[in-house]
Amino acid sequence: MPNYLLVDFGSTFTKLCSVDIDAEKILGTSAHYTTVSEDISIGYNKALNLLYDKIGKKIEFDQVIACSSAAGGLKMAAIGLVEELTVEAAKRVCLGAGAKVDLVFSHHLTKNEVRRIIKEDIDIILLSGGSDGGNSENVIFNAILLGEMGIKIPIIYAGNKSAEDDIRDIFEKYDMDGYICDNVMPKINKLNPKCARKTIRNIFLKQIIEAKGIKKIESEIDRVILPTPNAVLQAAKLLSEGYMEEKGLGDIVLIDIGGATTDMYSICYATSRSDVIMHGLEEAFAKRTVEGDLGMRYSAPGIVKSLSEQEIAFINKEKNIDIVKEVNERYKNVHLLPHDERDEFIDQFLAEMCAYRSMNRHCGRIHEVITPMGKVFNQSGKDLTSVNYVIGTGGVVINSKKQKEILNQTTNILNDQTQLRPKDPDFLVDQLYILAPMGLLAQKDPRLALKLMKENLKELK
Amino acid sequence: MKTIVIGVIGADVHAVGNKIIDYTLVNSGYNVVNIGVLSSQEDFINAAIETDADLIMVSSLYGHGEIDCRGMREKCIESGLEDILLYVGGNIVVGKQEFNEVKEKFVDMGFDRVYPPGTSIDNALEDIKEDLGE
Ligand code: B12
Questions:
Q1: Domain at B3-132: CATH code
Q2: Which of A97, A182, A222, B101 could lock A200 by a disulfide, CB 3.0 to 4.6 Å apart?
Q3: Same domain for A79 and A67
Q4: Is A282 within a domain?
Q5: Ligand 1 center–CA B29 separation, angstroms
Q6: In chain B, which ranges are E strands?
Q7: What spatial distance separates the first Cα and last Cα of chain A, rounded to whole Å?
Q8: Which chain B residues have any C-beta within 8 angstroms of a chain A C-beta?
Q9: Do both A103 and A149 map to the same domain?
């Protein structure tokens, strides 16, 4: 009776999920604080004991596979030429690979920008710029500056093919840890993420895991194979597309509201309509965006920052809450758990804001152009109006008493005709925290991972 | 190979001429970057930067060319494209205005070549060759 143990070393919690492969069942899940600063195995072993308690006995695992976003996750800097083109392409490739994009730079780098790369402990740099045969000057300038300033962290070059040989020479000359990939934007508005994404993953496996203190535990687990957000993206893609005879859910949106970020994933094509003209950089079928200023604890101040004074006054008066003070408390005490109705109300409010705002930035926009032949539509970004499901995950969603109210914020509640938000989706909640684990299981047994997701995601009526 | 960015500017959806220009220029041996209809000045400029283009060829068919093209040269200069060639053609203004006046306006706006209505792309090939040297 083979059992798998799937582990997610999260920034706050280490989460376990055990699966009985023959019985096709989840045996149990458990969680404990991640203990990466002391020794990551302490938290892991505590979570493991909790899991044994839940199952009622100690069991053997044939495979232990893990994903990780501990110790700040995979931190990347994305560098390109023009903001809307290669900069955006580079950023999207990083996000799709499950990274956090802490720094984004365009045009010629400055020394100060390179110093920030060093200071902010970036794990990997993605350097792009120029379509194939296009601008080479900018990437060569940037590579030389990075070399001159002694950058030794891994750099992936994924820019203009015509500059590749020069870049290789620069990597060699300055003894840099360089990797050469296909251009992330070989033609204007064409996105080509594959090669760079694969290289990010390989570097993550080879070097980053060790640097994040996860190597220590390697005797106990078989492999750490993915950054957590990448595992979630793969789970979402599988859930949408289906696998062989096991049907998928079709077009979906997934929102993960965390302490520091709100991650949003959409699995669908940019549009299915024939009367729209698409604009801007090509959209990926499986897309992830991350909002670093929208989160429940560490990033809570970011939510309030964008409210007007009038709005803050309204909330304060209506609910008798000093929202600014509350938010700062959450920023200072990131482990705060709500213990009364008031706390719950504030967390609910913050979560709804995260959901509303992150969808604002994730969804596409559409504008009408009138012609005598009727209307033509000019669209940028993804059309999410007809997604079947919006799925919620993350502590605040899972623990909320009003889950639907949070997820409903992703729909077009203000009836803004220019925003392509989901229109009338059904809502699901990842009540058992299984999405990342199922992304891992999907690497071995996609059919089972899909089946377990379909059985264990909770439908909100 | 010389690179030319083409597209139709503003809220203009006339797509047929754009396709013909693409076809003609490719067959004449140019690297064509076609950003299509409904393109803004920024779309042209961004594409020209990334592709290291030599020439931006703006089409305007629906009559609002003057409004749509104003300020484009200044933006090119700001974006480091001070030397890029700018052409404009199609039906760049409404109705049948005196073309010399129209041309003067667009030249003042920084366009290197301005074409009257009815000029097909074939007529411009000579100019392109002269300006780009191939
Ligand atoms: C088909 C058509 C439409 C279709 C377009 C369908 C489509 N998606 O392509 C529809 C019905 C949608 C349409 C709408 C409108 N149209 Co219309 N349309 C035409 C029509 C009949 C043919 C255009 C065409 O395809 N020609 C064939 C191609 C091959 O030629 P071309 O576009 O001119 O391009 C060639 C040359 O101009 C040149 N060229 C183009 N750009 C450049 C650039 C350079 C640098 C150079 C050298 C050469 C060059 O090379 C091209 C290839 O050889 C013309 C009339 C006409 N006979 O031209 C009117 C015409 C262009 N339309 C016109 C108008 C006014 C409109 C509307 C504003 C009507 C309205 N009141 O709503 C709307 C605007 C819609 C919008 N937002 O863009 C006017 C423009 C008048 C003006 N500029 O003064 C025209 C001239 C009709 C007219 N005589 O009044 N239109």
A1: 3.40.50.280
A2: A97
A3: no
A4: yes
A5: 26
A6: 3-8, 31-34, 55-60, 85-90, 113-114
A7: 36
A8: 1, 3, 11, 13, 31, 33, 35-38, 42-43, 46-47, 49-53
A9: yes
